[in-house]
Structure to design on (263 residues):
């Protein structure tokens, strides 16, 4: 986690001393929070922390996205073989995902008309990389759920530990509530990549879109724009899966009870 936070500052030149110190502080805080969370016996904020590889998949994809983009911007000042490869990947993904009405096209259109062409191209590539990897993350998770039986293959699933923000004991049937939360997360996850650029345009007087010309700002903004909705979709898929597992277990329990009564 510390390496993820510090990676853009480590690979991209032009970061001042004050900025570097701030990034180091953030990296240490992020690493400390993750260390405390995963060494605690009680839940706090991180969902599905004992249902691997849910969080590992999210971290891995974000790490790859940040690495590709950091190497892309590094190549503008210190070109090399690796930076050329990452630039080529970024160009391909940016061009493939920039079609009419796509989230990437909307992200490009939110830039002001007087934005330099280099900044527009950089945003297109960054948006293409992040959105493509985020969709790959969701597809891989769907395969894990429906083909490999996540999370049943990892042993018993503890709702209290893995869903700390979901109170299974508060009113209503838990299955209906889980499926309701799943639908909300899936809808938000699908709509947010389209809605966020529109919101930025509406709030252009408040939001400084020109700041996206800075590499680090662009990297983290595009990661947030792409991976937050994808994480919501993953959460929705996971909660729907948990609801199905509880329903199956309830059905088996009722069937066993009825068979005992018949005996």
């Amino acid at each position: 986690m510390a390496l993820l936070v510090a990676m853009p500052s480590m690979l991209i030149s032009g970061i001042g001393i004050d900025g570097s110190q701030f990034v180091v502080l953030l990296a240490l805080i992020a690493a400390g929070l993750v260390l405390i969370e995963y060494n605690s016996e009680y839940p706090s904020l991180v969902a599905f922390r004992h249902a691997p590889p849910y969080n590992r998949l999210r971290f891995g994809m974000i790490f790859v996205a940040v690495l590709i983009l950091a190497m892309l911007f590094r190549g503008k000042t210190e070109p090399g073989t690796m930076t050329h490869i990452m630039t080529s990947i970024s160009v391909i993904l940016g061009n493939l995902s920039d079609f009419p009405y796509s989230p990437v096209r909307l992200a490009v259109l939110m830039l002001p008309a007087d934005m330099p062409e280099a900044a527009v191209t950089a945003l297109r590539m960054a948006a293409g990389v992040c959105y493509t990897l985020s969709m790959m993350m969701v597809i891989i998770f769907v395969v894990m759920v429906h083909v490999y039986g996540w999370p049943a293959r990892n042993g018993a699933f503890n709702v209290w530990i893995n869903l700390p923000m979901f109170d299974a004991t508060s009113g209503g049937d838990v299955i209906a509530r889980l499926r309701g939360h799943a639908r909300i997360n899936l809808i938000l996850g699908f709509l947010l990549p389209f809605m966020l650029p529109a919101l930025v345009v509406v709030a252009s007087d408040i939001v400084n879109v020109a700041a996206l010309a800075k590499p680090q700002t662009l990297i983290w903004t595009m990661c947030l724009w792409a991976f937050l909705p994808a994480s919501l979709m993953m959460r929705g898929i996971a909660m729907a899966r948990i609801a199905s597992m509880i329903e199956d277990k309830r059905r088996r329990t009722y069937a066993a009870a009825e068979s005992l009564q018949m005996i």
